[in-house]
Amino acid sequence: MKVTVKYFASIREAIGLGAEVRDTQASTLAGLRDELIALGGEHAESLARGKAVRLALDQVMVNESVALREGAEVAFFPPVTGG
């Protein structure tokens, strides 16, 4: 299935992309994250397990167990602090 993947803040800077359309075999956000990590390089470093990464599906904050669907928009971004 095709999904749009968006990267924000330090993840976008590291990967060098703001967004991309990807074909995925993943059924969940966790599976998609694992596919991106498997690409190696900056994807692996920025999205590595153990790193704090927030996810959104179609602009709604979710956890990694959420199911993917055709045409979904997935966003990865680091935790944000304010003050």
List the keywords.
single chain, 83 residues
Tell me what you see in this structure.
This protein has 83 residues and is an alpha+beta fold. The protein is built from 3 helices and 5 strands. It has helices at residues 9-15, 29-38, 41-47; strands at 2-7, 19-23, 54-57, 60-62, 73-77. The mean pLDDT is 94.
How many helices does DSSP assign? 3
Shape: globular
Q: Main sheet: which strands, in order across?
A: 2-1-5-3-4
SSE order in H/E notation? EHEHHEEE
Structural class: alpha+beta
Task: Please tally the β strands and state the result.
Answer: 5
Rounded to an integer in angstroms, the radius of gyration calculated over CA atoms is 12 Å
Strand content: 25-35%
Biggest sheet descriptor? 5 strands, mixed
Percent of residues in helical segments?
Answer: 25-40%
Segments where pLDDT lies below 50 for 5+ residues? none
End-to-end gap:
40 Å
Please tell me the overall pLDDT.
Answer: 94
Provide the fold topology.
Blueprint (H helix, E strand, L loop, with lengths): L1 E6 L1 H7 L3 E5 L5 H10 L2 H7 L6 E4 L2 E3 L10 E5 L6
Parallel strand pairs: 1-5
Antiparallel strand pairs: 1-2, 3-4, 3-5
Please provide a brief summary of the model.
By secondary structure, the protein is an alpha+beta fold.
